[in-house]
Amino acid sequence: MAKLELGDEAPDFELPGSGGRTYRLSDYRGRNVVLAFYPGDATTVCTKQFCSYRDNGDRLEGLDAEVLGISPQSVDSHEHWIEEQSLNVPLLADEDLAVSKAYGVTGWVGPLGKLAGLDDTPGGRYVMRSIFVVDGEGIVRYKHVSRTGSTFQTVDDLERAVAGLTPA
Q1: Cα pseudo-dihedral 120, 71, 129, 12, rounded to 10
Q2: Band of residue 111 on the pLDDT scale cut at 50, 70, 90
Q3: What pLDDT was estimated at residue 17?
Q4: Long-range contacts of 53-60 (CB under 8 A, 24+ apart)
Q5: CA distance 140 to 4
Q6: Least confident of 86-100, 101-115, 125-139
Q7: By C-alpha distance, which of 15, 29, 32 is closest to 67?
Q8: CA separation for the pair 154, 141 (Å, rounded)
Q9: Which of 44, 61, 71, 139 is 20 to 30 A away from residue 53, measured at CA?
Q10: CA 9: distance to chain centroid?
Q11: What SS3 string covers the chain?
Q12: Strand 33-37, strand 66-71: pairing
């Protein structure tokens, strides 16, 4: 598993996502991107996270960045969750965890993970709640990885991270 650091080139990827689209990081060259890795659709903290993004949609739209959610669930699962919660962030399906591994944000599911409902994971691995801000040149400029996933980066946090990309 890679350990991606600030200043590294972000691994490119191609993933199926909501809205019937295929998403490629390379399609965002020249624009900033926020990659929001999360453990699972419809889980408690993930729902709080993405509903907070929905509820602050005007602020998200004001970011100088596109926000993309990435988790191991299928596109069908993502579409259902988006409809159920009226979510406004595109969700990408990393079902084999290849992208999550490339970004170094997978971990082994232990007993606590199983209690949290992460018992059906690809190869016994789960995705750590993580945020990466990738600038228009494809370079990682911000990184936050939560091993426990009990909290998430708020829209305030995302605004500060993206604001840090532009010289004052």
Answers
A1: 130
A2: low
A3: 98
A4: 53/87, 53/88, 53/89, 53/155, 54/85, 54/86, 54/87, 54/88, 54/89, 56/155, 57/88, 59/155, 59/159, 60/88, 60/89, 60/155, 60/158
A5: 8
A6: 101-115
A7: 32
A8: 17
A9: 139
A10: 17
A11: CCCCCCCCECCCCEEEEHHHCEEEHHHHCCCCEEEEECCCCCCHHHHHHHHHHHHCHHHHHHCCCEEEEEECCCHHHHHHHHHHHCCCCCEEECCCCHHHHHCCCEEECCHHHHHCCCCCCHHHEEECEEEEEECCCCEEEEEEEECCCCCCCCHHHHHHHHHCCCCC
A12: parallel
Q: Where is pLDDT greater, at 136 or 168? A: 136
Which is catalytic among the residues 46, 67, 97, 128? 46
Give yes or no: 46 in active site.
yes
Instruction: Kindly tell me if the per-residue pLDDT of 148 is higher than 90.
Output: no
Q: Is the pLDDT of residue 35 over 90?
A: yes
Positive or negative CA dihedral for 92, 93, 99, 103?
positive
CA distance 20 to 76: 10
